[in-house]
Write a structure and sequence with these properties.
Elements: H1 5-14, H2 16-19, E1 20-22, E2 41-43, H3 63-76, H4 82-86, E3 92-94, E4 98-99, E5 105-108, E6 116-117, H5 119-136, E7 156-158, E8 163-167, E9 173-178, E10 181-182, H6 185-192, E11 205-207, H7 214-228, H8 241-257, H9 260-267, E12 273-274, H10 279-288, E13 292-296, H11 301-312, E14 328-331, H12 337-340, E15 345-348, E16 355-358, E17 365-369, H13 372-379, E18 386-390, H14 393-404, E19 407-411, H15 415-424, H16 426-457, H17 465-469, H18 472-499, H19 521-529, E20 532-534, E21 548-549
Parallel strand pairs: 5-13, 5-18, 13-14, 14-17, 18-19, 19-20
Antiparallel strand pairs: 1-2, 3-20, 4-21, 6-12, 7-8, 7-11, 8-9, 9-10, 15-16, 15-17
Helix pairs in contact: 5-7, 5-8, 7-8, 14-19, 16-18
């Protein structure tokens, strides 16, 4: 290994082209994990004499020792090891192996991806406008206030029953709320024990994909209470839970369409946007590494320009403008249709938003509408050469994955709170698991004694000689004691299970879990469609644009170790 690190890097920079080569697309292969080697940096051994190093001698000794020296160099440079970054709330978590070096273009959504809003402020504003719309239609909304803690991302609205439910990875309902009142475990079992959540039935189930769904869900659940209380007057027509959902949904839509919400946000963005100074720097690293950067948002030009100026320009070096980062900007993209069909493309040609039709996007251009195939054609990149980053599991992630085979990243800011909640819940969960293990051991013994008693009643020997030789009194007394033990364990386990996850949300528990061990339906969707997921885009700063993300081992029920 080279002893003088600063001298090494100085020489490296001066002869970069002579010492290293980048694997071009036409010479790329796939590695042992099936990932493209395009973009890999290769060492030209014939030029090592520039450093006075013998190519074979440079790596003499056990390879483990060389790896340890690399870890030491990371520490010396003050750079966090990517493996340690994964074990933090700001980690990037990998569902499917992804070689960033092979990615030619990275596309970004804007709202709740590049720009994170204060949920209480943004969704609270939408809620207020929604309530005002409902009031004008005659709905009783007096006394209602916005309570974002009523819901979390990943819940599902059952519009037939006026319920909000949390499903596990197999679509079984694990928790439910009617109106604003949580239902008991027994009530959930009686109501949903024989049916599954089926998101294909869009007329009944509404999946809360994004934080933009919070105002809708809160308003609807509160209005369910008013409907149950008989407070909604008959002159509004005969309303069932589905009709009520339609009315609330229309009020939310009108709140967005009339323009007042976005106008208010644009007039004072500092009240709604939570700035992230590191985010523009993460994108600069990617751009300087040769990635083509795209902004593909459903927001219109005026709103996009105002929000991006506010969130980016003050953190960029050398008086750069946010437009300088992106090779192509597409507003009013109309996702998810953007990924599925061909729509007309318009070029935005003036600062006032004047547009003209065009047929091909050019680098540096600003466009409205269009489709993903146009982007691929303009950049001459396709499929898994593109990574798309967004916050909406359906509109952003699943559709780009299913229809185009783009690589995908999901942004979910709540992961930071969940991670910290899990850390602080560790001792609680360990105690709960210990009690469950005790219950399982007592239950196993009880079942064996019960079987021995059953066989004895049929004049057949028990499973073992010792069990066969137990007298009736000892057998019955042991079973009685075990029943008492299991009942007392249940009395401890039940409230602890109920409390699990309350550090994240009092009603719904953890975002990614539906019970102690089961994954939530949202987590299943993330694993299915998102190759990587993280809490914010600036987390890429800890990993470099050349990171090779490796998926972690997936434990199976029969993994004995």
């Amino acid at each position: 290994m080279v002893k003088n690190n600063s001298e090494f890097f100085a020489k490296t920079n001066s002869v970069h082209g002579d010492v290293f080569s980048v694997t071009p697309p036409n010479e790329s292969d796939v590695d042992y994990l099936g990932q493209s080697t395009k973009g890999d940096l290769n060492l030209k051994l014939e030029h090592l004499q520039v450093f006075g190093i013998d190519g074979n001698a440079a790596l003499e000794g056990p390879i483990e020792e060389v790896a340890r020296e690399a870890e030491g160099l990371l520490k010396h440079l003050g750079i966090p090891n990517p493996s340690s970054s994964r074990k933090s709330p700001r980690g990037i978590f990998c569902s499917r192996t992804l070689n960033l070096r092979s990615i030619s273009a990275i596309g970004y959504d804007m709202d709740y991806t590049l720009i994170h809003y204060n949920v209480m402020a943004w969704e609270g504003l939408v809620y207020d406008y929604c309530m005002e719309k409902l009031r004008k239609r005659g709905f009783p909304v007096d006394g209602l206030v916005f309570d974002p803690d009523l819901v979390i991302r990943g819940l599902v609205i059952d519009t037939e029953r006026g319920n909000l439910v949390k499903a596990d990875q197999f679509s079984n309902v694990k928790r439910a709320m009617h109106g604003t009142k949580m239902l008991s475990t027994r009530a959930v079992s009686e109501m949903y024990g024989r049916e599954l959540v089926d998101l294909r039935n869009e007329s009944r189930w509404e999946f809360l994909n994004t934080l933009f769904s919070v105002a809708l869900a809160v308003a609807y659940m509160q209005m369910v209470d008013r409907l149950d209380d008989g407070a909604i007057l008959p002159d509004l027509g005969p309303l069932d839970y589905k009709g009520l959902y339609k009315a609330v949904g229309e009020a939310i839509l009108q709140a967005h369409l009339d323009g007042h919400v976005k106008s208010e946000i644009m007039s004072k963005p500092e009240q709604f946007v939570e700035p992230d100074p590191q985010l523009p720097l993460a994108l600069l690293d990617q751009k300087e590494a040769g990635k083509k950067l795209l902004l593909i948002t459903n927001s219109d030009y005026h709103y996009t320009n105002k929000m991006m100026q506010h969130s980016f320009n003050r953190f960029l070096p050398n008086d750069m403008d946010w437009r300088d980062i992106f090779d192509i900007v597409i507003v009013s993209a109309r996702k998810p249709g953007f990924f599925q069909m061909s729509n007309p493309l318009y070029e935005v040609v003036t600062g006032e938003g004047l547009m003209r039709p065009c047929f091909k996007a050019q680098t540096g251009g600003l466009y409205s509408g269009g489709c993903a195939q146009m982007v691929e054609k303009s950049l001459n990149v396709h499929g898994d050469e593109i990574l798309y980053v967004g916050d909406h599991i359906y509109t952003d992630v699943s559709q780009s994955k299913v229809h185009l085979r783009w690589r995908t990243a999901l942004i979910c800011r709540e992961l930071e709170d969940e991670y910290n909640a899990l850390i602080h819940s560790q001792s609680h969960r360990e105690s709960l698991v210990e009690l469950i293990n005790q219950k399982e051991a007592a239950g196993d013994l009880f079942n064996q004694l019960r079987l021995a008693l059953q066989r004895r009643s049929k004049n057949r020997p028990a499973q073992t000689l010792a069990a066969t030789n137990m007298n009736d009194e000892d057998l019955t007394e042991s079973m009685q004691k075990l029943l008492i033990v299991m009942q007392r364990l249940d009395e401890k386990i039940a409230p602890m299970l109920e409390a699990d996850g309350k550090l994240f949300n009092l009603r719904w528990g953890f975002l990614s879990r539906a019970g102690l061990w089961d994954k939530s339906h949202l987590m299943k969707q993330i694993e299915k469609y998102a190759d990587i997921y993280t809490s914010r885009v600036s987390n890429f700063l800890n990993y470099t644009p050349f990171m090779y993300f490796c998926s972690q081992e997936q434990n199976l029920a029969h993994d004995s170790y």
